[in-house]
Amino acid sequence: MKRIYLDYAATAPLRETARQAWIEASGALNPGGQYGSGRAANALLSEARETIAECLDCEPIEVIFCGSGTEADNLAVAGFAQAQPELPVASSPIEHPAVREVVARHECEYFTVSPGGAVDEDSIRSVLSTSHSVATMMLANNETGVVQPVETLVDAAAAVDTPVHVDAVQAVGHIHVSFRALGAHTLAASAHKFGGPRGVGLLLARRSPVPQPILCGGGQQRGIRPGTVDVAGAVATAAALREACAEMSVEKQRLEDVRERLRSGLRGSIDNVLMHGEGQQLLPGHLHFSVPGAEGDSLIMLADSAGIECATGSACAAGVNRASEVLLAMGVSEADARSAVRMTLGRTTCEEDIARVVEEFPRIVEMARVAGMC
């Protein structure tokens, strides 16, 4: 039985172009060395920076390689917050834990969220009527796929001289992202979300202002992220991003079409299913819904036994049986939030996969509803 992978928001399969790029660069030595092999490694690193800068519309010097998107978020949010500790942080309550847990360590003022899953723009303007150490918001939510009003955040923050960090981990490689046009001061991305290697994150950081360093070391990468850079990982990330961006417009349309067939198929075959984020701009491959009367964990385990791999929400919270904080912030009841399933599609998803999911899932729902809520 072919297994159907529907958890692209957690991680995308490694692209062959990234695998080959990594293999070819795997022998690279320390890019900080002044000798020939060091200069050769640094040349590969510089080329990777230039490719990423071209894809994300920024300067090569603004590209900083990290160990993960989580690290990139931490470096930016904690770095800005520590630079002005007398000021509060401004954030939404639907951030990924990589941001939310950092924000929780500081005084914070939160924006509100609409029932549709988008941060309320009036609340952004209200909170940012005064200066903050940093204003942070994701470009697109990792659970619902709802694209957030980052432009409103940037405009409001600029009026009160507040730096802006954008968590674009879910968005980069899936929708067009221009760091220059966005106007944020820092932006986080993660290679494995668009088919690059695990263990490589990206932090884009403008020349000024910059986050205060929270790591100490040799001063590499403008001192923002010291440590010897993984050259092979950087090269593979650049190769994956270049390919993702080249196919983006065609793939975006294809995934939106496939997702809508999945949405209509599930809605037509399952009673009382609640679709989240409807009426909002969504990432092309995201479908997030609740099945009242069924535990989310039961649904994904039963789906797994049928060869369908999906999730309840953020992979970073997997294994913990609790209601989604994102859905709760949207006003969804705790019971319905606990019955959520996230199916995220990607480049290997085909029509046959969707047909099988639509055929199998009503039976899965029936069994989960018989088991009931814990």
Q: Can you give me a brief rundown of this structure?
A:
This protein is 41% helix and 12% strand.
Profile the largest sheet: 7 strands, mixed
Helix content: 40-55%
Number of strands: 12
Strand order of the largest sheet: 2-8-7-6-5-3-4
Low-confidence stretches: none
Write down the overall geometry.
globular
Order of helices and strands: EHHEHEHEHEHEHEEHHEEHEHHEH
Question: What is the number of helices?
Answer: 13
Q: What is the percentage of strand-forming residues?
A: 5-15%
Could you report the average pLDDT, rounded to the nearest whole number? 96
Structural Rg? 21 Å
Notes on the protein architecture:
It is built from 13 helices and 12 strands. It is α/β, with parallel strands linked by helices and 374 residues long. The longest helix has 22 residues, at 248-269. It is globular.
